[in-house]
Write a structure and sequence with these properties.
The protein has helices at 4-7, 32-37, 53-58, 60-75; strands spanning 9-15, 21-27. With 76 residues, it is of the alpha+beta class. The radius of gyration is 15 Å and the shape is elongated.
Length: 76
């Protein structure tokens, strides 16, 4: 409701051995994981549980292309 969770979003890039690269999306609030996982919480209109998982599943190819592009930018 305050926007704190949304504003706490961040990304981190890790270069792995063997040329493999990884990136992580995170939300840095004490309640972020519970807010994501708890299916019984009441949410304001337009808000849902699984706020990362569901949109990713619905747009998986596009999301992977965006992540690939952003990871490449982060490694430059």
């Amino acid at each position: 409701d305050t926007g704190l969770l949304e504003k706490s979003a961040g990304i981190k890039f890790n270069e792995q051995t063997g040329g493999r690269h990884e990136g992580v999306v995170f939300y840095d609030t004490p309640y972020a994981i519970r807010q994501h996982e708890e299916l019984n919480f009441r949410h304001a209109e337009g808000r849902i549980a699984k706020y990362l998982e569901l949109p990713f599943q619905q747009n998986q190819l596009k999301a992977l292309q965006i992540m690939q592009r952003e990871i490449k930018k982060g490694l430059k």
